Amino acid sequence: TEPYTYNFSMSRAIDENILCQYEYYPVKAYLDDDEMDNYVVISKKLMKLFDQRSNSFTNQSYAEKLLLDRSRIIHKARNKLTCFKSIVENLKELRGSIKHTFVYTPEGEAEEGGSILNSYISAVESMYPNVNVHHYTYQSENRHEVMKNFELGLIDMLFSMKCLDEGVDIPRAENAIFCSSTGNPRQFIQR
């Protein structure tokens, strides 16, 4: 939090080759009607709990639950997968390959069951059956081997969630697709 005792900006880190140069292309994934309706309902409940005089919620624990529910709607937005597929298609068309692509997916369970991470992996496998994909999570037993195979090009696309928040270095990634955003500045920088 401010005031900072020391400030080292991302642009300075790039200028001094601590971070690599990158191009950033945000793609918006909109909530569908059902998701937007739920988002609005929760937002109205939060507005009723907010006390402007004290600048806080009257029922903090209930407000935190509602904030988490609202955040999950954005986190699991159905259109993210559609946007992701479009990004992968465009990347393949532009580069001729999707090799050395890192994908950062939302965590949690998909509506149809199974993990969100697996639904993203399945999407690529159905689009491009010859592309070698793999997951990289804190539960992966052979993390070093997986990373080495990604660097060597034996794994074309590497899918992960949450582990970048700890600052994992993926030097061979030429492309990164982030399907999970964060409002936390430290997490954003780490990713």
Q: What's the helix and strand layout?
A:
Layout: H1 10-15, H2 33-49, E1 50-51, E2 56-57, H3 60-75, H4 79-95, E3 101-104, H5 116-127, E4 133-136, H6 143-152, E5 157-160, E6 175-178, H7 185-190
Parallel strand pairs: 3-5, 3-6, 4-5
Antiparallel strand pairs: 1-2
Helix pairs in contact: 2-3, 4-5
**Strands in their spatial order, largest beta sheet:** 4-5-3-6
Q: Bin the helical content.
A: 40-55%
Count the helices. How many?
Answer: 7
Structural class: alpha/beta
Largest sheet: 4 strands, parallel
Summarize the structure in words.
This protein has 191 residues and is α/β, with parallel strands linked by helices. Helix content is 44%, strand content 10%. The chain has helices at residues 10-15, 33-49, 60-75, 79-95, 116-127, 143-152, 185-190, and strands spanning 50-51, 56-57, 101-104, 133-136, 157-160, 175-178. The strands form two sheets. Strands 4-5-3-6 form a four-stranded parallel beta sheet, sandwiched between helices. Helix 6 links the parallel strand 4 and strand 5. Helix 2 runs antiparallel to helix 3 (60-75) and helix 4 (79-95) runs parallel beside helix 5 (116-127). The longest helix is centred in the first third of the chain and has 17 residues, at 33-49. The chain is globular, with a radius of gyration of 19 Å. The model has no long low-confidence stretch (mean pLDDT 86).
